[in-house]
Amino acid sequence: MDKLWPTALIAIVVVLIFVGMWIGWRRRARRDSSISVPSALTEPGETLLTVKALHVGSTHHDRPLDRVVVPGLAFRANATVTVSTGGVTITAPGERSVAITADAILGAGTATWTIDRTVEHDGLVLVAWRSGSGRAATDAGGTIIDTYLRTADATEQERLVASIRSLVPQRNSTPGADDVAPDTTTGSEA
Questions:
Q1: Which of 15, 23, 37, 154 registers the highest number of CB atoms within 10 A of its CB?
Q2: Closest CA relative to residue 163, chosen from 82, 72, 78
Q3: What is the spatial distance between Cα 129 and Cα 103, in angstroms, rounded to a whole number?
C-alpha cells in the first residue's frame, strides 16, 4: 500500500506530460493550418536530379526550433527528393507529397542543426521557400519555410544544393530572397 501512492503519482505526472504534448501539437497544427502546400507540381518539366534523403524537419524561416505542422512536412521521414525544372517534390512513404514550385524557392544552402538534429558542420541541405501556390508563392504572401534534408553522402548533398539553386530566379531586392540559406546557416552555427 505504501508503494501505491508514489506509483500513482508518477503515473499521473506521465499522463499529464503526454496530455500537454498532445495539446501543444494540436495548437501548433491549428496555428499552421493556413499554410498552403501543394502536393504536386502543375508543370514538373524535365527531371534534373532524384536522390534519397532524410526529411529532418521543416521550420518557420530563421527559427530552426519552430517546427511547421502541415501534411507531408510535420514528421521526420526517409524521402525521395526530385528536382525538376518546375520545382522540388519531396515524397515520403505514407505521407502526402510536398511540391515546391521553382518560383517559390528563395534559396538553398547548408546548415548544421535544426529541431531534433545536430550534424557535422554543413551536414544538412537547407531549402528556403515560400508556401502557397500561384501568386501567394511569388508575392510577399505566404509563409517562408526552411526545409532541412540529410543526404547519404557529401557528393549527393552538393548535387542537390546545386540543382535547387539552379531553379532560383534572379530577384531584385526581394526581402529574404538574397542569400536566404547562407543567412540561416550563419545563425545555426552557434
A1: 37
A2: 82
A3: 9
Q: Does domain 47-187 have CATH number 2.30.29.30?
A: yes
pTM of whole model > 0.70? Answer: yes
Domain boundaries, the chain: 47-187
Tabulate helix, strand, coil % of the chain (nearest 5). Answer: 30, 30, 40
Sign of CA dihedral 126, 145, 100, 52: positive
Residue 183 burial by Cβ neighbours in a 10 Å radius (0-12, 13-18, 19+): middle
Classify 183 as helix, strand or coil.
helix
Cβ 46 vs Cβ 81: under 8 Å: no
From first to last of the 190 residues of the chain, give the pLDDT tens digit.
678 888 999 999 999 999 999 998 888 888 888 888 888 888 888 999 999 999 998 999 888 888 898 888 888 899 999 999 999 999 999 888 999 999 899 999 988 888 777 788 888 999 999 987 544 444 456 789 999 999 988 899 999 999 999 998 765 433 333 344 444 443 444 3
